[in-house]
């Protein structure tokens, strides 16, 4: 009798996976001659691959959600998923609530042929994950990275000097009154508020030379004490009054049409904005403020309740993560989504080649620079790209920021319930009606 | 005919099912959360928390302001339009009604997107006038809902009554105030209900018009984003109570004339 297909319920953010259907002229031809083309949706390809590789049928029930909170609320209301892809803080929250299933030991075995994740994950990302803990447990045991990036400011270099866009306090600058958009996101805005609050210390030499720099930075950027929240509220309230709007999606288009001259953006969306603007003949740039930025990532994790200790299911779930981490699939997803994968490729050169395909300088180009990405691809791997000089401020900088930028980044963790309450109250205070703004 | 074999009760089953699944059940969940705390115990605290929170009351005020101004401007624009259309001042009245109403068939986010670009040209920077833009956007959005009921009720008005008023010496204004307006009251009431209530919660228009101040709809959403289902549900309940109250009031207003031909959609 044929065994029943394994049903894998996967929930992911909207438009966060290659859905196939590329035109032929979208074929990506890499240096080594590898051609990459997304014909079928990634989900279908996985089903076919799994059956071929493991001889078992798997059926994916794929659904999407808008925000981490939406996913959390869905699960609280009784939706059961096997594999989900939330952001770092939500992974930590789910870990804390003991709702995640740890990966099996074999998932971390680089000797296994199909273990594309552990073989390919960037050494830099892996080291960040190793340091990230919830209680005593390492986050990497429960979450496998998917996409990652920074947060910064997309700006129009004709209207804004790079120096201005390199500081969070730009958002308070009256010179750009009603010309900058902020993200309609409490956590990201709070981070920026803290960046402005600690501006002087963050830029001062004293902190930068401190051997405990990383710990201090992380502590400051995750501080939700009453006093700090109150001070951040003041800053953010002024920022909101100075801002053009708080947006979730319109910022990208508004940059292109010129309604605003700068907007706060996640690096992947920044790449998208820059690409779109280019098509319309507008050149934009991206800067990560010097004070500090938020190093974020989204990662796949397995839900205890969904898997309910079904070994076959867990195998399929881990295979899903590995399949997405296979270098050619990584390229497909990166092309489709525009974000940067945590996968560097390990022994495979495809992902580096894709970076070269996108940003390598054309032959005969004069204004070029060497762009080192050793931290990401590793020392043994090809890692230094010759790129157009403008890429120092553009897509390449957004996708693979220089190591100096990352040194100043901190991961924003999941806050305590108390902390969450405080910042939510702060946000409501900032957003609610204020008599002075009636007219 | 086969249909005859169904009783009236049986025919009501599909809607009853719909009602239970999509109205009564979700509503009970909302009510449950509204009157419990995080531990699931009964409490009235959420109710009082709303009214002692100045920011929440401010949001209520702001929502009412937006809805009120929107309703007024809709009324001011729709009444003359409906009058002209209904009184047949143009030979192809029905066609003109279509012209006024067809925008309703286009998805409102599309309409607002277009409007945004027009306003952007006029104003230069939309972010300077968030309140004004919101009201313009909402008026644009809801205007057809005001025109239609007014049109129907003016259309059905007996023009002999107006002529009689004129014969008896009433001035133009007097005819309007004392005869026409009272007679078109059912249309006004149903128009106002259809504009005022949705305008209080339609936060999509605010978002699209770059107005980042919360109204009731967005305030509720923010509570759910912070896992505070109890207070979020309470605010929904309060809003629901206000809607019930307002429809009751408007029902009483419109009652006398509705059988005479007050329009409802």
Q: How many runs of DSSP E, i.e. beta strands of chain B?
A: 0
> How much of the sequence of chain B is in beta strands?
under 5%
Largest sheet of chain A: 7 strands, mixed
Report the end-to-end length of chain A measured between terminal Cα atoms.
Answer: 73 Å
Number of strands of chain A: 20
* Main sheet: strands, sense, barrel of chain B: none
Task: Provide structural commentary.
The complex is a heterodimer of chains A (439) and B (265). Chain A has 439 residues and is an alpha/beta fold. In chain A, a hairpin with a 2-residue loop joins β7 and β8. Chain A starts with 5 loop residues before the first strand and ends in an 8-residue tail after the last helix. The mean pLDDT of chain A is 93. Chain B is 77% helix and 0% strand. In chain B, α2 crosses α13 (229-261) and α12 (216-225) runs antiparallel to α13 (229-261). The A-B interface holds A 67, 69, 72-73, 178-179, 184, 186, 240, 243-248, 250, 259, 420-421, 424, 427-429, 431-435, 437-439 and B 55-56, 58-59, 61-62, 65, 120, 125-128, 130-131, 207-208, 210-214, 218-219, 222, 224-228.
Annotate the secondary structure layout.
The complex is a heterodimer of chains A (439) and B (265).
Chain A: E1 6-13, E2 28-29, E3 35-36, H1 42-54, E4 58-65, H2 68-76, E5 83-84, H3 88-96, E6 100-101, H4 116-120, H5 123-131, E7 133-134, E8 137-138, E9 143-149, E10 151-155, H6 162-165, E11 180-183, H7 186-197, H8 199-203, H9 205-209, H10 213-221, H11 226-242, E12 245-247, H12 250-257, E13 262-266, H13 267-279, E14 285-287, E15 293-294, E16 296-303, H14 304-307, H15 311-324, H16 327-337, E17 340-341, H17 350-359, E18 368-372, H18 374-377, E19 384-388, H19 395-399, H20 403-407, E20 409-410, H21 417-431
Parallel strand pairs in A: 1-4, 1-5, 11-12, 11-13, 15-20
Antiparallel strand pairs in A: 2-3, 5-16, 6-16, 7-8, 9-16, 9-17, 10-13, 10-14, 18-19
Chain B: H1 8-11, H2 13-34, H3 45-52, H4 54-86, H5 93-101, H6 108-123, H7 130-155, H8 159-167, H9 172-183, H10 185-201, H11 203-208, H12 216-225, H13 229-261
Helix pairs in contact in B: 2-13, 3-13, 4-7, 4-10, 6-7, 7-10, 8-9, 10-13, 12-13
């Amino acid at each position: 009798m044929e065994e029943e297909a394994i049903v894998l319920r996967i929930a992911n953010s909207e438009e966060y996976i290659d859905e196939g259907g590329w035109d032929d002229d979208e074929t990506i031809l890499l240096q080594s001659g590898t051609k990459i083309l997304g014909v079928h949706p990634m989900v279908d390809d996985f089903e076919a691959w799994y059956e071929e590789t493991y001889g078992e049928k798997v059926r994916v029930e794929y659904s999407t959600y808008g925000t981490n909170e939406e996913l959390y609320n869905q699960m609280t209301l009784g939706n059961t998923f096997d594999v989900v892809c939330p952001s770092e803080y939500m992974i930590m929250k789910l870990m804390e609530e003991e709702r995640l299933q740890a990966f099996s030991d074999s998932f971390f075995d680089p000797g296994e042929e199909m273990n594309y994740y552990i073989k390919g994950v960037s050494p830099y990302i892996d080291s960040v994950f190793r340091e990230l803990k919830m209680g005593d447990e390492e986050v990497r045991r429960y979450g496998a990275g998917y996409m990652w990036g920074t947060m910064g400011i997309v700006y129009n270099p004709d209207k804004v000097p790079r120096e201005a866009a390199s500081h969070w306090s730009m958002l308070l600058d009256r010179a750009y009154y009603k010309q900058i958009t902020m993200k309609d996101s409490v956590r990201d805005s709070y981070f920026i508020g803290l960046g402005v609050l600690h501006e002087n210390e963050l830029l001062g030499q004293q902190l930068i030379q401190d051997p405990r720099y990383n710990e201090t930075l992380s502590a400051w950027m995750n501080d939700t004490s009453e006093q700090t929240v109150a001070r951040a509220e003041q800053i953010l309230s002024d920022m909101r009054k100075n801002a053009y709007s708080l947006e979730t999606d319109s910022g990208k288009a508004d940059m292109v049409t010129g309604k605003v001259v700068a907007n706060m953006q996640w690096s992947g969306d920044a790449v998208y904005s820059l690409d779109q603007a280019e098509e319309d003949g507008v050149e934009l740039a991206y800067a990560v403020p010097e004070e500090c930025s938020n190093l974020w990532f989204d990662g796949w994790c397995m839900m205890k309740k969904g898997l309910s200790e079904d070994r076959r299911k867990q195998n399929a779930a881990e295979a899903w993560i590995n399949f997405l981490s296979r270098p050619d699939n990584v390229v497909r997803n990166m092309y489709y989504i525009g974000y940067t994968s945590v996968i560097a490729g390990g022994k495979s050169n495809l992902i580096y080649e894709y970076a070269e395909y996108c940003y390598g300088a054309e032959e005969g180009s004069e204004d070029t620079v060497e762009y080192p990405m050793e931290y990401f691809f590793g020392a043994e791997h090809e890692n230094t790209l010759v790129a157009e000089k403008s890429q120092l401020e553009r897509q390449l900088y957004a996708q693979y920021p220089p190591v100096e930028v990352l040194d100043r980044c901190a991961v924003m963790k999941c806050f305590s319930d108390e902390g969450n309450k405080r910042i939510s109250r702060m946000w409501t205070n900032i957003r609610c009606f204020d008599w002075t703004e009636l007219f | 005919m086969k249909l005859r074999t169904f009783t009236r009760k049986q025919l009501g089953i599909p809607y009853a099912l719909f009602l239970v699944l999509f109205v009564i059940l979700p509503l009970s969940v909302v009510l449950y959360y509204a009157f419990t705390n995080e531990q699931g115990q009964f409490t009235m605290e959420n109710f009082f928390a709303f009214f002692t929170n100045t920011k929440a009351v401010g949001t209520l005020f702001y929502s009412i302001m937006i809805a009120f101004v929107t309703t007024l401007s809709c009324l001011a624009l729709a009444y003359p339009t409906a009058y002209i259309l209904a009184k047949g001042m143009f030979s192809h009245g029905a066609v003109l009604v279509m012209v006024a109403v067809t925008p309703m068939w286009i998805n409102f986010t599309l309409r607002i997107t277009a409007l945004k670009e027009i306003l952007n040209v006029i104003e230069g920077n939309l972010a300077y006038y968030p309140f004004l833009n919101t009201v313009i956007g909402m008026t644009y959005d809801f205007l057809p809902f005001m025109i239609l009921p007014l049109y129907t009720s003016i259309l059905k008005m007996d023009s002999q009554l107006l002529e009689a008023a004129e014969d008896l010496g009433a001035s133009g204004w007097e005819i309007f105030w004392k005869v026409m307006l009272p007679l078109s009251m059912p249309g006004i009431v149903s128009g106002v209900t259809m504009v005022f209530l949705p305008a209080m919660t339609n936060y999509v228009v605010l978002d699209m018009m770059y107005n980042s101040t919360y109204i009731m709809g967005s305030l509720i959403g923010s509570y759910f984003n912070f896992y505070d289902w109890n207070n979020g549900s309470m605010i929904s309940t309060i809003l629901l109570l206000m809607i019930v109250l307002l429809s009751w009031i408007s029902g009483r207003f419109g009652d006398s004339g509705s059988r005479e031909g007050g329009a409802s959609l």
